[in-house]
Amino acid sequence: MTLTYYLVLAAILFTIGAVGVLVRRNAIVVFMCVELMLNSVNLTLVTFARATGTIDGQIMAFFVMVVAAAEVVVGLAIIMSIYRTRRSASVDDANLLKY
Amino acid sequence: MIEAPDLSLAALAPLLFVFGAACIGVLVEAFWPRESRHPVQVTVALVGTLGALVTTLLLTVDFEREITAAGALAVDGPALFLQATIAGLGALSLLLFAERALDPARSAFVVSAAVPAGSPRDRELLTVQRVQTEVYPLATFAIGGMMLFVAANDLLIMFVALEVLSLPLYLISGLARRRRLLSQEAAVKYFLLGAFASAFFLYGLALVYGATGSVRLGDIRSASLAGGTDVLLVLGLALLVVGLLFKASVAPFHTWTPDVYQGAPTPVTAFMAACTKVAAFGAILRLLYVAFGTAEWTWRPLVYAVAIVSMVVGAVLGLTQTDLKRMLAYSSIAHAGFLLTGVIGLGAAGDGSGLAATMFYLLTYGLTTLGAFAVLTLVRDGDGEATHLSQWAGLASRSPLVAAVMTLFLLALAGIPLTAGFTGKFAVFRAAIEEGAWPLALVALLASAVAAFFYLRVIVLMYFSPPAGAERGQGPTVGVPGMPTTIVLAITATATLALGIVPGSVLDLAERAAIFVG
Amino acid sequence: MTDFPWLLLMIAVPAVGAAVVAALPKGRDLLAKQVALGVSLVVLLLAVLTAIAFDTGGDRFQLTSSVTWIEDFGVSFALGIDGIALVMLLLIGVLVPVVIGASWNDELPEQRSMKAYFAWLLLLEAMMVGVFAATDVFLFYVFFEAMLVPMYFIIGSFGGPRRQYAAVKFFLYSLVGGLIMLAAVIGLYVVSNSQLGEGTFAFDALRQLDIDPGVQKLLFLGFFIAFAIKAPLVPFHTWLPDSGSEAPIGGAVLLVGVLDKVGTFGFLRYCLPLFPDASRFFAPFVLVLAVVGILYAALLAMGQSDMKRLVSYTSISHFGFIALGIFAFTTEAATGAVLYMVNHGIATGLLFLVVGMLIARGGSRQIGDYGGVAAKAPLLAGAFLVAGLASLALPGTNSFVSEFLVLIGSFPEEPVFTIIATVGIILAALYILLMYQRTMHGPARGVLLQEDPAEPAPGTGGATAVLTAPRRSLRVLDLSRRELAVVTPLVALIIALGVYPQPLLDVIEPAVSATMDDLGGIDQ
Q1: pTM tops 0.95, yes or no
Q2: ipTM greater than cut 0.95
Q3: Domain of C432, in residue numbers
Q4: B: neighbours with 3+ CB pairs under 8 Å?
Q5: How many domains are contained in chain B?
Q6: Neighbours of C (≥3 Cβ pairs closer than 8 A)?
Q7: Domain limits at A64?
Q8: Rg of chain C's alpha carbons, rounded to an integer?
Q9: What is the phi/psi pair of residue B75, to 5°?
Q10: Chain B partners of A3 at a C-beta cutoff of 8 Å?
Q11: Number of folded domains in chain C?
């Protein structure tokens, strides 16, 4: 069934996002990786909606988009505030809180 | 034709109260003159949370379990008990937010978060008597999200609630007035890792939806009964649990906890430690027992393992800490492990005393840890709170009362009898042993012995060491708390003692509340 | 008379007294002392009245009362005493006023208030009474653990130079033991839940349980480790010398005299009746530990130069005797062991007090810093001698009766262990007499030596005196009237109980033989 391809693609995107969060150092890029993960979830949801023949999954995708938008607002605000102080968005530079 | 969804306004009243207060708070922020805004905001937030507390208590009087809002919300015993806990602890945290007597600049929060830290304007603002009031609606929203979280009967609602409680927390943990860089850094860390964890939760949601065709907890249960062992379902469950364990700061998903607890303003840390823990565990309990109660073989080993890891990591790493806030963060990780011991203690059929025990533990831990952080806000040096251990040396000789109250909280966290902490620990360990998980209980007991060592270290410092900086006359000062903090300390200390000496009625309440609907 | 809540009062009076003393305004030290002494004397009176109300021929547990405490856990606030608990209550009643009297003029570390010290002492007394009077296992556990807190503060706030280390070590050892016991307590509850239909902690109900031998062994170990740490038996003993030597004298007396007896009391009250099969299974191991403890601690005691440490080690050795008596499983030996618990509390208590008085005069704990004291302070030396002789169980002193009973009772069952244990008696004579001889007799020497013309204040010590001064003699004050008042009751008890121990034996024997019945009765 061709729907499997979509699911596999979504899984690959999710993995790319997750790995990106773990290895990238720039807060903005990390944040984009999180967004990538959320969007891969959207793809999964829509695919499953198609597979089960209901629209629940599509509605959920809308919810996810709204929440993601809210998250962007909050996230960028926080990253902005630290960037204005430090002139850098690297996660490595943020090292006051080390063990 | 579309039918209007069933909606029980009475059952939703607590949530409506809090969210209503939050929205009013936003309007106040926009329209009320700045000079007199602070008392108004505090009043609105307190009315909202206390109103929610009262309405949840009223709901329990004539109590009928029901699922409402088109099946999205479950208003049952655990939901009401945890909502009341969150509302109560939230109101106490808001009182800590509102404390104005301690900091010479009258508030623990930055005046204008948009001004870069360390800039000339920032230095100028540091001594300004103006206070920032956005934190109150934000915190109220977070409390509302938490109360929704524990009542969510639907994974999607659970996700929305998770975000509603997390987003304001990300923001307010970055709003410290002093040590702003530390605070902002904590916010960034919390945000990135939090968003990462919610993505996991969301992916789990999608997989469960794919496996069962529904995100309603009850439907998932029946589908998993019929379908048996679906790989998709198990994977989805694992991802959901990881997302929730992150919020509950369970090791190995705890890495953010020490940093955020240390960097965030102390009232916010207290709020997070007490309320977020309750909310996250409420959701974990509901998810595991309502949706996956029949498939407990899938998650029991996982929970068993992370419980052990969490207790060991929390207790052992806690030993090496020199900062009190970090130490309490590791203590919170260890306590998350103890709580999971209670989660294990609920039998397959939903019997067993695990649920009641975990809920009671959440209440006692919330009160105790809130009190401990409240004491932390009192001890200050020139640059805000003095949280380094060495600065607490000999505190008892200078302020015996503060030291005595702190000792009470530390003994409770260590689980010494006649304090609330012991009753809670006893309840969860009993539940675990009843379910045959005595090796886990034994690990938990040993971990509490290790953890007791670092609590004890603080007591040793306060009582048995010569005062810090006494010879140079520059030790930390102990602030005289204003009305709000005094109220918080009085309530938490009294409750910590009372729940240790006469816990009967509250335990009974938890016992009667401990049946999920679904 | 038996319906009167004697036991509850014995817990409540010192607890309330502690609160009152703590609440007194700063600087009113004398008032605090007087209140504390008054409260402790009231408790002594209550203990005596309790003893009068106690009917030696009556039920096993008397003066019982029970109030539901935490319904969900099946916990009751259940009090009641058998003969064993009664004699321990009497011991507490006697020792606490003595300790308060002895601590009257203690020099505390800087910035410590006498008021807090006495408040903690009274709170400790309330907890100790509770531990012995509880007939609910949960309640027992609560007192067992809560008792640590006052003792911890007594050692940590008012002790010697290494008090922080000693306090933490004491607390952690006891806490670890207590937590292991907690697991066993909950396990016991779960077993009762499956056998009786509802969980209970009531001792009388738990005694009826028929526990699977495998489970018994685990639960026994849980309780045993906690009690063995408390008692302490040998591999778990290392905290006692530190705590005993760093604690202030009053704290040390209560620690060794009463607190540690909770361990041996626990063996008799909980380990044997609740887990008879496991007790029999583990008895050989315990006996080995006990005998090793007797010899090992005695040898270590001989090597000590610090008097307080020496006395602590002698206690460990004595605890070996008590454990031997309990785990020989004969009524005679166990009765001897209980009597030993009382006698050891009195004898070692007195020894600690006298050593403390000497240390207060010289400011040093080293044996080598003293010599020839007897010539100048005959009363002090006399009290020292009585305490020492009681400690080495000379016939005519109280300890002789109990040690003899333990040995003669154990011999038929465990001849080998008993014979080895006897060596401990010889060692005891050595370490006690050597300490006495070195400090009290011989040429005058040490820190108390001072230049003749100088008129030093007592207690401040002469360590700074010029050592090259040609004519020096010992400056030491004999016992003051207060000290005499403290020492006399204990000396009297040592002699009285040595000559006529029968009343105590009459009280102890029925309780012990009931315990042996629970065990399945090896001898009848």
Answers
A1: no
A2: no
A3: 321-524
A4: A, C
A5: 1
A6: B
A7: 3-86
A8: 23
A9: -105, 95
A10: none
A11: 1
